[in-house]
Design goal:
The protein is mostly beta strands. Helices cover 7% and strands 57% of the residues. It contains two helices and 22 strands.
Length: 254
C-alpha cells in the first residue's frame, strides 16, 4: 500500500509540468473567427474590422477584434488570419455579423487608394447567415471566405462600394470527454493522456468529470483517487472533433 501512495505522489509531480488544468463548467464553446480571401483584381483591399458579433439561440455575443486594419489580399490560397477568439454559450449559431469601423476601409487599384463606402457594415454589421450547432466544451473555427472580386463595386462616378459576398465555413476543431466516477467518495484526479500530452481535471461533488477542447485522438484516461481507493486507467478512449465522448460510469475499487 505504501508503494501505491508513493506512485500516486510521483505521478502528480511528474504531470504537474505538462498538464493543463480544466475547470470548465461545460456550458460554453470556444469560437475562433478567421478571415480568408478569394482573389480580386486589386493591389490591396483594406478592411478595418471593429468587432465580430455571433448571434446564437442564446443571444448576441460580441467578439472584440485586436490589431489594426487588414489587407485581406494577403490571406488567400489557403492562408488566413484570426479576427477574434472567445468562449461563448453553447447553442445554435444563426448569424455572424462583421462590424466595420467608420473609417480606414479602402481599396488600392493601380497604385491609387480609394475609400470603400460600406452602407451597412459600420452599424449593424455585414450579415452572414449560418446554421451550426455549438456543443459545449468543443472548440470551433468559423472561416469567413471573402470574395473580393464580387464584393467591390465600381460606381459610375468613380467611387468604390463594398457589398460583401462572404461565405462562412464552420469547422469543429476539437472534441470533449466526459463521464462519472463511482463511488463519489473516491474523489479522483483524472488525467487524459495522449502521447506526451496530459490534461488534468477533478471529479466534482456529483462524481462528474469533463474535458473540453481535446484534440481528436486516442487517450488513456487515468483516475488517481484518494486512499484507500486504487488507481485505475481506462485505455483506448477515442475523442473525435465535434462530439462529446461519454465514458459512462467508471467504478473505482479499494
Amino acid at each position: 500500500m505504501k508503494k501505491l501512495f508513493l506512485f500516486a505522489a510521483v505521478l502528480s509531480v511528474s504531470l504537474f509540468a505538462c498538464k493543463k488544468d480544466n475547470t470548465s463548467t461545460g456550458t460554453t464553446a470556444h469560437m475562433t473567427v478567421k478571415l480568408t480571401d478569394a482573389p480580386g483584381a486589386f493591389d490591396a483591399v483594406i478592411l478595418n474590422v471593429k468587432s465580430v458579433v455571433v448571434v446564437t439561440s442564446e443571444g448576441e455575443h460580441t467578439l472584440n477584434v485586436t490589431g489594426g486594419p487588414i489587407d485581406i489580399l494577403r490571406f488567400r490560397q489557403g492562408r488566413d488570419t484570426i479576427l477574434a477568439a472567445q468562449d461563448i454559450p453553447a447553442g445554435t449559431i444563426q448569424q455572424i455579423r462583421l462590424v466595420l469601423n467608420d473609417s480606414g476601409n479602402r481599396v488600392i487599384v493601380a497604385g491609387v487608394s480609394y475609400d470603400l463606402t460600406t452602407p451597412s457594415g459600420q452599424t449593424s454589421g455585414v450579415k452572414i447567415n449560418v446554421h451550426e450547432n455549438l456543443i459545449a466544451g468543443v472548440a470551433y473555427t468559423m472561416l469567413l471566405d471573402f470574395d473580393a472580386a464580387q464584393s467591390i463595386v465600381l460606381t459610375g462616378n468613380g467611387k468604390y462600394i463594398l457589398k460583401p459576398v462572404i461565405r462562412a465555413i464552420p469547422q469543429a476543431v476539437s472534441g470533449a470527454l466526459s463521464g462519472m466516477v463511482s463511488p463519489i467518495a473516491s474523489s479522483p484526479k483524472v488525467y487524459a493522456i495522449m502521447g506526451t500530452d496530459t490534461v488534468g481535471t477533478v471529479a466534482d461533488a456529483t462524481g462528474k468529470f469533463y474535458f473540453p477542447g481535446l484534440s481528436a485522438g486516442t487517450y488513456n484516461v487515468r483516475f488517481v483517487p484518494v486512499s484507500p481507493y486504487i488507481i485505475k486507467t481506462v485505455t483506448n478512449v477515442t475523442v473525435t472533433n465535434g462530439a462529446v465522448q461519454d465514458m459512462g460510469t467508471v467504478t473505482l475499487t479499494q
